[in-house]
Design goal:
This protein is an alpha/beta fold. 37% of the residues lie in helices and 14% in strands. The chain has 14 helices and 15 strands.
């Protein structure tokens, strides 16, 4: 696309946008009477205006039915989680039986690692990316310690090469091959939270399986953001939160994926709870766990209906729009943000200051997020953007993360951001 740094161009693109009306389905934060430019959907997605109605349905049924709401409400709670299987499976490229919505992200990660990190004296190592999101680091560390192992010896971290910002794919594959039969599990954030880099999950999974290891991904920054084909890629397991690109509210319920070949393995070790037990005999209350032959077997407790109602409000929007249209707009919108930043950066030529986009330019290696290193600037730049109504994200020492989300951000948002950024730099 031939981008132009003009309000006329931005408004023209918005007028032609087939998803333009969806912005009106979300609450855009207003601060001091002024609508903000919200670029932190990679941290917390905006609230769909339908969310309150979805939650109120369950509150009303709770008031009307009490415990009988499990069977007689408008959305009977006994099977509430089952409504998510088909639409969420489309978002992550899975079969419905391979997907379950439950718990929160790090809870699900730990539950899945119980099944897919099974260390032996010979095969005990876990491979992950260096400086993964802290929750992932802590989960891996404690899984290793719980097995009586030393994290310094058992965890392999792959970092960018000296002077580079992102991790080379060949370095991940080489590390897997080098670990060989000592490798028990690969667990990588499918999209790096800091740089926005998307890893080649298909090739990583193939490499892990070639040496006999399981392979899984934390898709906190992937679900609802990038194209995923978890079943086709033969991924063993994955999990994700719903409060970022899936717009399901702070601390919203998480999702998990288990490939069908593992779903059918009732002998696979796992932590058990009654909601993962065969539902036809669940209420017989008998001893002996009988896991369902689906990802539901990893459920431990019955569904948190109120947070799931918020999740359903957003998932219904995704079902209506479809990932194909979202991905198409995503490229145009984030591409426009890159263009604006590059345009402004060119004006800094000849100075000791610059704006460096560290997110990969190759669309196979990125999604919505654009991460910028502001060389020569401190947090005062970020604070000035915030004061002018830009809600973005700061990471020490000098990184600004932004994610224009195709469901509710506009080209005019991006243009206006560019004007505010230009003025802030002059200050």
């Amino acid at each position: 696309m031939n981008y132009q740094n003009s309000l006329e161009f931005a408004r023209q693109q918005d007028e032609q946008d087939e998803l333009k009306d969806y912005r009106n389905k979300f609450y855009i934060p207003v601060i001091d009477g002024k609508e903000t430019i919200y670029f932190t959907g990679n941290s917390l997605g905006l609230q769909p205006k339908s969310t309150k109605d979805y939650i109120n349905i369950e509150l009303e049924d709770w008031a009307k039915w009490g415990v009988e709401g499990h069977f007689h409400g408008r959305n009977p709670w006994f099977a509430y989680h089952e409504m998510f299987a088909a639409p969420v499976a489309k978002i992550v490229g899975a079969l419905p039986k391979e997907v379950v919505v439950m718990n929160n992200l790090t809870v699900n990660l730990n539950l899945l690692l119980v099944s897919f990190y099974r260390p032996t004296p010979q095969r005990y190592k876990i491979l992950c990316e260096a400086k993964a999101f802290p929750s992932d680091q802590y989960a891996l560390e404690m899984q290793v310690k719980s097995a009586g192992l030393n994290p310094d010896e058992a965890i392999i971290e792959i970092a960018p090469r000296e002077g580079e910002r992102t991790i080379r794919h060949e370095d991940i594959i080489s590390a897997i091959e080098e670990a060989g039969d000592t490798l028990a599990c690969v667990m990588i954030g499918g999209v790096n939270y800091f740089t926005g880099q998307v890893f080649d999950m298909k090739a990583i999974t193939e490499a892990a399986h070639k040496v006999g290891a399981n392979c899984g991904f934390d898709l906190a920054h992937g679900a609802g953001n990038i194209e995923l084909k978890l079943h086709e890629w033969n991924v063993d397991f994955a999990c994700w939160c719903s409060y970022k690109y899936l717009n399901s509210g702070p601390g919203g319920v998480s999702g998990a994926f288990v490939h069908e070949r593992h779903c059918n393995n009732t002998d696979l070790p796992r932590f058990a709870g009654w909601w993962g037990h065969d539902k036809d005999s669940r209420f017989l209350m008998e001893k002996g766990f009988q896991p369902m032959k689906s990802a539901e077997a990893w459920q431990m407790s019955n569904a948190p209906i109120l947070t799931m109602a918020a999740h359903k409000a957003s998932i219904d929007i995704f079902e209506e729009v479809g990932m194909e249209k979202l991905l198409k707009k995503q490229k145009a919108l984030s591409g426009y943000l890159e263009f604006i930043v590059d345009n402004i950066n060119a004006s800094l030529s000849g100075t000791d200051k610059s704006l460096e986009i560290i997110t990969p330019r190759n669309w196979k290696e990125r999604g919505c997020q654009v991460s910028v290193i502001a060389h020569g600037y401190g947090k005062d730049l970020f604070n000035e953007l915030t004061n002018e109504g830009v809600i973005s994200d700061w990471r020490e020492p000098n990184a600004i993360r932004m994610a224009p989300v195709p469901l509710y951000n506009s080209f005019e948002d991006v243009y206006r951001f560019g004007q505010i950024l230009s003025n802030a730099l002059k200050k």
